[in-house]
Amino acid sequence: MAAIARPLMNDPKDPTHITFEWGQAIIDYALSHGIDVLDITGKWVDYQNITPLVMQNRPDLFIYTGHGCRNFLATQNGCSLTNGWKEDVCQVQCRQPPNLNLLRDAIVVTFSCHSASQLGGCAIKYGARAYVGFSDYMMFTSDGAGSQDLFRDALLPMAIELINGKTVGEAVAATKAALLSAAKQWKPIKYMAIPFYWNYEYMQVLGDMNARLGG
Amino acid sequence: MALFEEQELRKAAQSSCFIGDCLCSDSIVHLGPLVMASKDLDKEMAEGTPFGLKLRAIAKKVEALM
Prior knowledge:
A: six-stranded mixed β-sheet, B: disordered N terminus
């Protein structure tokens, strides 16, 4: 089973309103490939709700599409998943006790900033099979012409290739190849090329590169 | 720090439907700790903030792409 947490911030211009839709694309793809999905959305994505939901369902694949800090994943109501450490990047602090151990044996994919820098390493220590995310900002453009869709297409292989049965290493390689290709394609336009290459540079994978769903 | 000349930008604009929007300084969003933070790449790089220095390094690598 896969679980996906898609927080939505109140501000309709917040980028979570874009990544929320990316999450829907992942859900649709997973369901069409026979994978059950636990969809935790909007206001339900907070520490109080996500803790029992993950504990009861023990997903093989856990996906997060929302704001991230070094030591926790963020929501409208503070944090959702945390290693319990004091935060040193975010303006807000997460004061909840750690619940990261609930991702033991899961492959974790985060479309979030920062979390691979510290939270990811903790997840591996707690027993997660692999953790894919970003060690700095995850950036994309957002405009009326739909350039955010180009970033969606380059980034979503992180999850889609796992659903296709590929290993974590293969999924990351496919994503990095897509990001690099897009950076080259958009080289003349820095506002496109720099975010593509930034994501390519700061995308990180921790844990078992050979892990795969069901394997 | 200009990454490419205005002339090149105009040339790119003719072949891209996105460039008009990409020129907006607030068109870059991220999922970091500052909620709905938007980044002006030129401003960050010019000011040499820690983030701007990282951007400069990325910009150099982009320039070197074949």
